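notes to self, project folder thing:

trying the whole complex as one job this time. last attempt i did each chain seperately and stitching them together was a nightmare. two parts in total, labels are on each line so i dont mix them up again. if this works i'll redo the older ones the same way
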Amino acid sequence: MSRQVEPGQTGVIPFGPSGHGLKARKLGLIAGSAEPIAVMPEDCAICRAEGLTARTSILVEAGDRQIVARLMRSTNDLVAEGDIGLSDEAWTRLGLSGGEPVNVRHPQPVPSLSALRKRVYGNRLAQADFANIMFDLVAGTYSDVHLASFVTACSAFPLDLDEMIALTQAMIGAGKRLTWHQPVIVDKHSVGGLPGNRTTPIIVSIVAALGLVIPKTSSRAITSPAGTADTMETLAPVDLDIEQIRDVVARENGCLVWGGAVDLSPADDIIIGVERVLDLDSAGQLVASVLSKKIAAGATHLVIDMPVGPTAKVRTLQAADELSFWLEAVAASFGVKIRILQGPGVQPIGRGIGPSLEARDVLAVLQQRNPPADLADRACHLAGALLELAEFAPLGGGAMLARNALESGRAWDKFQAICEAQGGLREPPVSAHRQVVLAPNAGMLGSIDNRCLAQLAKLAGAPASKAAGVELHCRLGDAVETGATLCTVHAESRGELDYAMQFYAGAGAIFGIEEP
Amino acid sequence: MSRQVEPGQTGVIPFGPSGHGLKARKLGLIAGSAEPIAVMPEDCAICRAEGLTARTSILVEAGDRQIVARLMRSTNDLVAEGDIGLSDEAWTRLGLSGGEPVNVRHPQPVPSLSALRKRVYGNRLAQADFANIMFDLVAGTYSDVHLASFVTACSAFPLDLDEMIALTQAMIGAGKRLTWHQPVIVDKHSVGGLPGNRTTPIIVSIVAALGLVIPKTSSRAITSPAGTADTMETLAPVDLDIEQIRDVVARENGCLVWGGAVDLSPADDIIIGVERVLDLDSAGQLVASVLSKKIAAGATHLVIDMPVGPTAKVRTLQAADELSFWLEAVAASFGVKIRILQGPGVQPIGRGIGPSLEARDVLAVLQQRNPPADLADRACHLAGALLELAEFAPLGGGAMLARNALESGRAWDKFQAICEAQGGLREPPVSAHRQVVLAPNAGMLGSIDNRCLAQLAKLAGAPASKAAGVELHCRLGDAVETGATLCTVHAESRGELDYAMQFYAGAGAIFGIEEP
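result (full assembly):
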């Protein structure tokens, strides 16, 4: 009781004694959420000494790395006193290999929390605010609760143009950015929501064959039965690092790889995860999501495929026009030339839904062997727009040029060359279990519920089961007889096939057959 | 490939085969968040068969109980194939004792998600919407992300009067409700933010001694160094069930118990947890929080203590008037008579901050042995308002009646009787480690930072360490000499004391001493 302490001059909260030397232990647990997990014994001495007994999140330090983790407490021998159990995500982000000493302490207040609160109360944010929020979000200092609040606030008060530009810039700044020597780098994006529609490998093959540079990085499926990376993976390796990507592009003008290794706009993936849980998707977030990825990838010329239909992502022409306006305005502010092609989004494009089935469609188009005409047409249309935008074709002449490249076999040659450069062309796998869906009555096929069809493909196992999915045998407007085959469901296991068929039986009319 | 499936007529998604008979295993893990945890082996057959491989949350069923749990995946032998590991929260909510078969399947869509989305987009919600949201929230079908979105939406677009009434009603309806035979049931609430201020045990003793019925249920600390239940627990048992509470109230007119066993407005505790993380507290949520708890407890007459000051919860007189308006309007709609006493909130009330130290203040006032005058005055003022509101005293005569009960020893007699009825009066514990904080210079004590002072008490171990906290030796306006004792920090362990003192050294001026 003799020491005298005088108040200091700073407002900084010191963080207790360092060097607890807790032993890090890998729990062997994938938490699968934004927040990694740390487990310590209930009522452990260090938690008490650090005043952490009532905390739900803590700062964990190993060497010069630190993360904010959700603190859980073990009530048995899961974690021993003096140890700290970490989820696989925590282990990876701390760069641990085993045996390193780890310290725990109070998390610092989230630096951008005041900016987040400002936005919740309806105030507009400046560039620096968005930059701080995206930095914190990518650094892992945002919990799910913070993320959800940010997404909600940006839906409650939609982003204005300045904010969209600022958020796009902030998302680019919070990740890596690719630079290329060539002055014109083309790229393509589909707003999505339409099953199938796997035009990207075809477009890349066409425009790269004609001399455009298109270093295409694609995502894996988030909510859909397949992403372009999932489909391409059935045809060639896609998990390339940045040096390998540069090599492929230098040799072939284009590539078709997974973007995950390149860390472009990592905030986008985090935000999308929360939007999905809340079923919120605002125009501003979508614009920043699309453009941050493309600009970070180095694109200077961008074509956007925007299917419009009642069960597509963009449901009305009015929504399509609004979204197009924002995309064009934000792209212009970054000096990116953009062209948006709205198109019909009432039924899948191509026959296959699922990685392997879509890959077969791509091969059919490139090899010109019984190609789905709608897929070939859409790919030529989009490739033509890219050729025109990059001034490789006169206005109105792009699609013809693209079709020539396809029909002459140049695109197929280029596709094979790209796959070889990425590690070798391979054959997509074939499903082990199949079941056909028959028409319960005769009539004209009047409608297809794209969302339910995608769900059917997912329940059959896509995209994790590469060969799983749905193969369509009908198109809108077809006259069908009772008992005609509408589609075939493909699965890799009997259980997945049964589950998908149960869903189909209960889902109501995926196929709307209008009796004459 | 021979079975034919015809589309059904319903839109309901069936939930796969039941009866997996997974073996439930207790992980020995307290998750400590809104979402209980379920762990299954990575890539387990049942997850694949059920299409759960990409899910982050699943429905877990045991008998007729079900919960939504966050799904995590074990990559080692933490959970064996055919087992499911559950956090303590999941175990308890499923009512498991061990060995029961458990099923997993897709969670049903959160039923109130569309109402939540409506609110996010700025639409007002009706009574039924709030009822559905509160039901889902208490049932555990809301994840942290949903909770954060709800709280954010109610801050972005503040609740209007109809919504406050609807939310209050919904929160009452989502928990238990106490009923009493007596027509007049009084209660008291403090809006908080001011350390110390432990008037409740004194008020209950006074008004119960004078014949009012006051079945007082209190909370434990959430963010403060002590809740009334924490303080009372150092003096008597507080963990009573509803029958025991009825017995005590029947005998003594009042009780001083923890409300946790009674399950009043459980949604309140869940919402408060998220508001704290986001540092959001809207007037509407506060009104619904306070009134739902009190109305569920059966109160008909309510006095509210509202300290106002720059570091209290309510910071300005304007905010106090606004909050008072909403409280009065919503209380009126439920037929509850209410009186709100705004008061100075610039410094702690009483000398002690922390469970045991505050209990000593309470005893000093009740026993009339060197009582802190401010605490006695505030308690008599509030008790007087209750007596007037319940027409036990004429307007303006309540405080005098209360003081008489205190000074005559009747309140002390009643307090002892209540404690005996609850299980026996006991002596608050005394701290093992103490350190004094001395004035660095001479002058007049011009300000106290209540938030930093509360933080100091918490870092010293309060409320988990009952004897920990801060004992104040000065009041605003005091002339202090250099080296005068400003306060004593109490702790139960040396580590906690050191940690608190480090914070004090870095926290800047908790005590503002103005040089003459």
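what i see at first glance: Chain A touches chain B through 97 residues (CB under 8 Å).
need to look closer tmrw
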